[in-house]
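Handout for the seminar on molecular recognition.
Each group receives one record of this type.
Step one: identify the two inputs.
Step two: read the structure output and locate the region that could contact arginine.
Step three: write two sentences on what you found, then compare them with the reference statements printed after the record.
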Amino acid sequence: MKLWSKGFEPDKLIEEFTVGRDRELDLRLARFDVLGSMAHIRMLESIGLLTAAELESLLEALGDILAVIDRGEFTIAPGVEDVHSQVEFMLTERLGDVGKKIHSGRSRNDQVLVDLKLFMRDEICNIADATGRLFDRLQALSEEHKVVLMPGYTHLQIAMPSSFGLWFGAYAEALADDMQLLLAAYNIANQNPLGSAAGYGSSFPLDREMTTRLLGFADLHYNVVAAQMSRGKTERALAMAIAAIASTLGRFAMDVCMWMCQNFAFISFPDELTTGSSIMPHKKNPDVFEIMRGKCNRLQAVQNEIALLTVNLPLGYNRDLQLLKDIIFPATTELISCLDMADFMLRHIRVRTDIIDDPRYDHLFTVEEVNRLVLAGVPFREAYKKVGLEVRDGSYTPDRSVHHTHIGSIGNLATDRIRTKFQAVSTQIKR
Ligand code: ARG
């Protein structure tokens, strides 16, 4: 049975091909579909398209459906196309003709849009929370290990002293930048498309400001065509934010794999958090961070997939848009699981404290030596040359003490300033 049934049933093959994974994916929209309908019918009553008594019985029935959803018992029956049809069928089954009235002034096109906006707004909050937890963990580790030095590399060659304070703190600050993109996606998602109907509005005097208020949207997509156009654009903005966070996390995962390698041995994890080999008995592999790196790399492709799906669609609703759900839904889940896993692993990270005592890192301190000479009055280029010649003839001996005091350096991590920056963005992303 279809909402749009006009006396014939579509071919089974056509139905399965077009419905695709909707029956499964739409379950994630169910809660928001009901909330969207509640706001819509309140508005319909206010403009005289439903009586107060009709509104009351509809709200009660929708409340019961919400309870079914919250108990995890809501399903979309075989033969029913999507969540929107399922909810309407449940209402008509219970209330008869009143149930058939709720779709006045609405199309599934703006209904699914409002569901998606609410869903994405919620998922963005979940991503922000998970990012916030990892940010806190990185900042805490940065402070805890701020005096532990490690080599800094350029060109993957030993360069200058770095520290665990800098390393952990760098990824925390990078996440603060990524949050700016997440906030942009949040602001784009936080606009009401309801009332755009099929994409061209309605001859009913819909009170779109009222549904905006009821659904807690910050603003609305005013132009009904722009509202429809936001399908795909919102997903794309979110995918960009996901890509930004994934790129930070993917690079971090790469660092961890490298620092765990015996040739570096800067960090380690308890045995039970590593994985083994079926042939080499000694192995303790960093599979968690390899899977994380791979997943984060794939997540950066999501924005391209969305771009290709939507790049030159004709204006107005096209069924291609349905496939956006297949792309963006698993992406948000995957990102959150990577963020949570990183936080879990970092709770158990072990940091080696004597790394730079190894003579192989002697040359890390050449610039310190040059700077000492400069402070004693030697021109920089002279000092550079003197130390360079010492390195060449083997007479250079490092002084391992490091005095970096400027803001953002080993001795002055600016952890609080970075936290303020992160919070200035994260507090704007709220349910
Ligand atoms: N499952 C559809 C989607 O996600 C719902 C909207 C259907 N609209 C239509 N005109 N067929 O896009």
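Reference statements: The radius of gyration is 29 Å. The longest helix spans residues 108-144.
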